[in-house]
TrEMBL record:
Record-linked Pfam families: TPR_10
The species this protein was found in: Nocardiopsis metallicus
SUPFAM superfamilies assigned to the protein according to its UniProt record, in alphabetical order: TPR-like
Top-level lineage group: Bacteria
Protein name per UniProt: Tetratricopeptide (TPR) repeat protein
InterPro entries: NLR-like (IPR053137), TPR-like_helical_dom_sf (IPR011990)
Length: 530
């Protein structure tokens, strides 16, 4: 924290009495605190309470109280002295300003934030009246007022005070002064403390421009400001802006750091991540394809950055609808994630959610429910009950328990996931199908809705996708009598075997539908034998 630069009352100026002045210097040099009280009484009696050396001794008495862990008592004592002095010399006398600065500092040392803020506010007004708004002491006092105002919890007022201080400093000191840059940093902080992440991002962009102007694009302070800009733009929901800021950060890093430097590699990972979040999926895919081999070559396959990049790529594949590949890659990394990062790390939790979400699309509902049930407390703690990840886990757990509330959660999940993933993502299509099967499947409108939804499955996923085959099997059982449905399901399975092979997801979906229906028609014994 910066101090307030004002006239000091901590050094003697001399009284004209050589013997007395020598005694004062000796007591201060020896640190003979027990003699200060008597010395102060003598100074007041001989030279008056307003004499600079009498005030100086009084300040040292207060500092003695502060050293005895009583800064509040010292502030109270100096406040009484200031009140007496004000009557004789006026409130704007340099000695009054110096006393007020000490009092404000002592309130701060006492952690009495409201009194500190009020005292610095009065001091700033007094110095401005005495010396002008651009005086260094006025600027320093106003900076302390802004800081302590924030410490009282009045964050919006702190933002306003720092904004005013920035305007004053730019006028008095110029836009490139170190104090101006420091105030810009504080402005970012208090915007964030006030919950104004958009304001923090805007202030951070101004800080980056100032740092580039003063220090150049590759200076460590400029790079640190760019890192903050990426963060706050992402926090503000401007993922496209975060991606642009990250690309600029990468360009600046590459000016001063080699390609294998850890920060360069991490910035490339962040760029791929923010491009993914911004919806620039093809660019993100290119980023990950180039990044992952470099991470494994320069770091290791199980380095924390490599693992985080692998999960990031799996997340991208999930968004692209390549859910089976995303599942395989994430399951292959989960053991290393838990070993290297820990089970509770945000990347590990995200990977576990991906596993649960992708297991649904390959028909492993039991595995998905088990994973969701285990993951649900952590998702609730991190994201709350209405985040799409939490809704997914809650809906599947409730449905497994036979709770009718699951349908309401599926509806909300469908709304959120349609915005996040798009209406034809495999997981969105599954939720839409689940909701469609809650309607009247015997009525004409219900059948028409299912037929239209099936065409979306076939168009988005292709006719041989496991989910499309599963849906087709469902339609067969709805439209045909039991024996005919069994024959058609058998034919569907044989067609999948001949065109896709026995291990394809579509073939497995057709086989599951056939064996389930066979058990329903012929009994459990026949199903087991099949």
């Amino acid at each position: 924290m910066r101090g307030v630069v004002l006239d000091e009352l901590r050094s003697p100026v001399g009284t004209g009495d050589a013997g007395f002045d020598q005694r004062v210097r000796g007591i201060l040099e020896r640190g003979a605190a027990e003699e200060l009280g008597a010395l102060h009484e003598e100074a007041v009696a001989r030279f008056g309470a307003g004499h600079p050396d009498a005030l100086m001794i009084r300040v040292h008495l207060a500092l003695q109280q502060e050293s005895q862990d009583d800064p509040a008592g010292a502030a109270i004592a100096l406040s009484g002295t200031a009140g007496q002095l004000s009557d004789s010399v006026g409130p704007l006398h340099p000695h009054m300003l110096a006393l007020q600065a000490e009092i404000a500092r002592l309130w701060g040392e006492s952690d009495l934030t409201d009194l500190a803020a009020d005292s610095y506010g009065r001091l700033a007004e007094m110095v401005e009246q005495a010396r002008g708004a651009d005086d260094p002491g006025a600027l320093a006092a106003y900076e302390r007022f802004a800081w302590w105002t924030g410490k009282t919890g009045r964050t919006a007022q702190a933002v306003q005070a720092y904004t005013e201080l920035l305007s004053r400093q730019r006028r008095a000191l110029g836009p490139n002064h170190g104090d101006v840059l420091e105030t810009r940093t504080e402005l970012i902080r208090w915007h964030a403390e006030a919950g104004d992440v958009t304001g923090a991002a805007r202030a951070c962009a101004d800080q980056v421009a100032a740092r580039v102007r003063v220090h150049g694009p590759e200076h460590p302070d400029t790079l640190a400001a760019r890192v903050q800009l990426v963060r706050w733009r992402a926090e503000a929901g401007d993922e496209a802006g975060a991606a642009r800021a990250c690309a600029e950060l990468l360009e600046a890093r590459e000016l001063v750091q080699p390609p294998h430097h850890r920060e360069v590699l991490n910035t490339r990972r962040l760029l791929a991540h923010h491009r993914t979040e911004a919806g620039d999926l093809l660019a993100a895919e290119r980023d990950y394809e180039a990044l992952l081999p470099d991470l494994e070559r320069y770091l290791s396959a199980d380095h924390r950055l490599t693992l985080r990049a692998r999960v990031g790529r799996a997340h991208l594949l999930f968004l692209l609808g390549e859910t089976d590949t995303a599942r395989v890659e994430t399951e292959g990394a989960i053991e290393d994630l838990e070993r290297v990062l820990g089970a509770d790390h945000e990347t590990t939790v995200a990977a576990r959610f991906l596993i649960a979400a992708t297991r649904v699309t390959v028909g492993d509902l039991d595995g998905a429910v088990a994973e969701a049930e285990d993951l649900l407390p952590e998702l609730r703690r991190r994201h709350g009950d209405d985040h799409h990840t939490t809704l997914f886990a809650r809906a599947h757990v409730l449905e497994a328990r036979g709770d009718s509330e699951a349908i309401a959660l599926y509806r909300r999940l469908c709304e959120l996931w349609t915005g996040v993933l798009g209406p034809t993502h495999p997981n969105v299509l599954l939720v839409r199908l689940r909701l469609a099967t809650e309607g009247d499947l015997e009525g004409e409108e219900g059948r028409r809705h299912l037929a239209e939804l099936f065409e979306e499955f076939r168009w988005a996923l292709g006719p041989t996708h496991g989910l499309t085959v599963m849906f087709r099997a469902l339609l067969i059982t709805l439209r045909s009598d039991e024996a005919t449905a069994l024959a058609e399901l058998g034919e569907l399975y044989r067609t999948c075997v001949s065109t896709l092979g026995t291990e394809a997801l579509g073939t497995r979906a057709a086989l599951e539908a056939y064996t389930e229906w066979r058990g329903f028609v012929l009994g459990d014994e026949e199903r087991r034998s099949a």
